[in-house]
């Protein structure tokens, strides 16, 4: 076990916990954890892991500290502005726990390096702020055979879970397709409530500690969401997608997450789409519409449009014969990616009056009805 100037009293309050003893503390000391991102989520995860006694923490990030980061990235200070986030985070770890070794990686995670890098760690904590990295982290961990604790925040809300291919569902089972490029607001565009980052980061650190020590039940096949405005938590379960092929290789994740179509296709999509305000006006007029929700059941539990028919995208083909192509369908999903795929499928089966909701239910919440929960 690590030795520090504080002596054995360092972890006394941890060791006093029921079911948490010397064996669990030694497991932390022997653990090697890779943290992706030393920004908002990493700023809560990294010091928590160091303080708990994790022996080796890898930190990978290619960004530098900016003044606008400091309201939520507590691991950095004003004196660190302009410095690399990895160097700043490493300095904070040294101040918190002299017995914790830091593997500093001032670079961006890539498909070229991920498999080799992940094979040197027991666990990955993904605090990245972009979808290509999230899918890359999930896939690389699945191939190497280690778990990923992941989290995400947006404005006043956040979510966290565990992807562990050998024991349960993965991130891809929860989000089979990435949202449309630009459809999810970045912290710079939409802002972020600082304590949301701290709450989700703390949950992520707790999941990592649980996995390492075997204490408690990790969030495998479950997602926890937090709404800072209401102060409430929700937990939703999800399963493996039995139709999804196994992950055997890494891909071009920037290309996978970029869904910007060529100009000709964009114009076609615009003609076959309806904006949230247009749909609201149509509903207000009493137009006869069939709202078709192609998200997963767990998503519909969080938020839905009144009277919508829930048919997950993967099940659409099996019910197509039960739908009337003469009716006016408006298909929607979370951000508009799955609904666009569903629209093309419906049009290929003679549904000439079908359209899809641009921006999905997320845009509906933002532009029409803020009472509809965002996730």
The CATH topology name of the largest domain reads: Rossmann fold
CATH superfamily membership of the largest domain: NAD(P)-binding Rossmann-like Domain
Count of extended strands: 13
- Indicate the overall shape: elongated
Total number of domains = 2
Task: Pick out the low-confidence regions.
Answer: 1-7, 259-269
Q: Distance N terminus to C terminus? A: 40 Å
Helical stretch count? 16
The helix-and-strand class reads: alpha/beta
State the CATH class of the largest domain: Alpha Beta
Give the structure's gist in a few sentences.
With 375 residues, this protein is of the alpha/beta class.
How are the SSEs ordered, and which strands pair?
Layout: H1 12-15, H2 22-30, E1 32-36, H3 40-52, E2 56-60, H4 85-96, E3 101-105, H5 114-118, E4 123-126, H6 131-144, E5 148-154, E6 157-163, H7 171-174, H8 187-190, H9 194-213, E7 222-227, E8 232-237, H10 253-257, H11 263-271, E9 273-274, H12 276-285, E10 290-293, H13 297-302, E11 309-310, H14 316-319, E12 329-332, H15 337-347, E13 355-357, H16 360-367
């Amino acid at each position: 076990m690590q030795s520090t100037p504080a002596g054995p009293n360092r972890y006394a309050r941890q060791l006093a916990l029921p079911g948490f003893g010397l064996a669990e503390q030694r497991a932390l000391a022997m653990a090697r954890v890779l943290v992706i991102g030393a920004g908002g989520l990493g700023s809560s995860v990294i010091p928590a892991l160091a303080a708990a006694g994790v022996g080796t923490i890898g930190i990978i990030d290619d960004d530098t500290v900016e003044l606008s980061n400091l309201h939520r990235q507590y691991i950095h200070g004003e004196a660190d502005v302009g410095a690399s986030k990895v160097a700043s985070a490493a300095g904070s770890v040294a101040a918190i726990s002299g017995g914790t070794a830091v593997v500093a990686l001032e670079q961006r995670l890539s498909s070229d390096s991920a498999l080799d890098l992940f094979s040197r760690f027991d666990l990955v904590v993904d605090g990245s702020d972009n979808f290509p990295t999230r899918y890359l982290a999930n896939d690389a961990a699945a191939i190497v055979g280690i778990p990923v604790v992941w989290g995400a925040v947006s404005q006043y809300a956040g979510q966290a879970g565990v992807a562990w291919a050998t024991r349960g569902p993965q991130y891809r089972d929860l989000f089979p397709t990435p949202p449309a490029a630009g459809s999810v607001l970045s912290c710079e565009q939409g802002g972020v409530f600082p304590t949301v980052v701290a709450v989700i980061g703390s949950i992520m650190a707790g999941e990592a500690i649980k996995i390492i020590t075997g204490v408690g039940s990790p969030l495998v096949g479950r997602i926890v969401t937090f709404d800072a405005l209401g102060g409430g938590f929700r937990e939703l379960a999800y399963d493996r997608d039995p139709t999804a092929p196994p992950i055997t290789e890494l891909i071009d994740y920037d290309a996978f997450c970029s869904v910007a179509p060529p100009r000709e296709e964009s114009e076609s999509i615009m003609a076959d789409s309806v904006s949230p305000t247009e749909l609201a006006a149509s509903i207000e007029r009493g137009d006869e519409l069939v709202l078709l929700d192609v998200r997963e059941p767990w998503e519909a539990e969080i938020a839905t449009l009144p009277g919508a028919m829930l048919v997950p995208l993967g099940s659409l083909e099996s019910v197509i014969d039960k739908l009337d192509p003469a009716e006016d369908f408006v298909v929607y999903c979370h951000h508009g990616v799955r609904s666009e795929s569903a629209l093309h499928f419906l049009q290929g089966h003679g549904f000439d009056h079908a359209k899809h909701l641009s921006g999905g239910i997320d845009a509906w919440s933002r532009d029409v009805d803020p009472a509809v929960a965002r996730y």
